[in-house]
Amino acid sequence: MSPPSSSPERPPWSVIAWHAIRPHTLPLSLSPVIAGTVLSWVAHGQIRLDVLIAAALSALAIQVGTNLHNDAADTLNHTDDEGRLGPVRVTERGWMTPNQVLWAAHAAFALSVLCGGWLVVVGGWPIALIGAVSVLAGYAYSAGPWPISRGPWGELLVVLFFGVIAVGGVVYLHAGTVSGAALLLGLIVGLPAAAVLMVNNTRDRVGDARAGRRTLAILMGRDRAVTAHGLLLAAALAGLVALAALDPALRGAVLGLICAPLAWRVWRALRTADSSVGYNAVLARTGRVQVALVASCSLGLVLVGSVW
Fold first, then answer.
1. Model-level pTM?
2. Sequence-distant (≥ 6) Cβ neighbours of residue 100 within 8 angstroms
3. pLDDT, tens digit, for every residue of 237-258?
4. Is the dihedral of CA 226, 228, 233, 238 positive or negative?
5. Of 48, 54, 285, 298, which residue has the fewest beta carbons closer than 10 angstroms?
């Protein structure tokens, strides 16, 4: 859906909610849940439907809460204004007040805790620790004395929370153990998610620098940030080969290499992007590369694992 033009009239609530939750980011939170579930079944023969549902709902709620909190916070701290290049932010447009959006964020985080309660029953204190840190990270992304979104560590934390920790935690919940394969698959899932953030920060680097941010894209400059985006995608593809070499039962992961042409074209598109429309298109396409990679890798794991 294309962002509506600025207007004194507020659009329907369905449109406001659509933009507020940023649906294009939600697959990034579901991907590690799917990948971890598939790996648990293939490598350990274990899968729990209750874990899958609770983990998916909790992950989605944390993502939505983080998005809502960021929407309100960036308006309050004047990072977002009428000159922003990215998609619509509902508080900047005046469609909702920052206080309304903050309350919605609190509700989303509360839902994640509620769903996570069952996961704690299943997995014990390690899952309680992961859940608590994940919720705190959601708040800390845009709030606190050192907001993550304003510094250079965002991409690294995305790899950890949307990759290694998430996949490892899901495998642990299903199978009661975490292997090197789970951590490697988490890295594979997290790297393209970090590439999505790299596109976002590359697009916003001028306005972010003016607002006092020091993101990795600002510190590196546009050309190096574009190179880093390509390296993140390339490293994820290389990780598929490493995963297949780690265990013959996991060699189906190489099916994910069919996404290599998609990754190449997205990186080339970023190299030539010179407008908000171009950057936003690359951002969406990078997210689709991650989804396609996880889907094809998971399919390969299932097909090979079922006959191994």
1. 0.87
2. none
3. 999 999 999 989 999 999 999 9
4. positive
5. 48
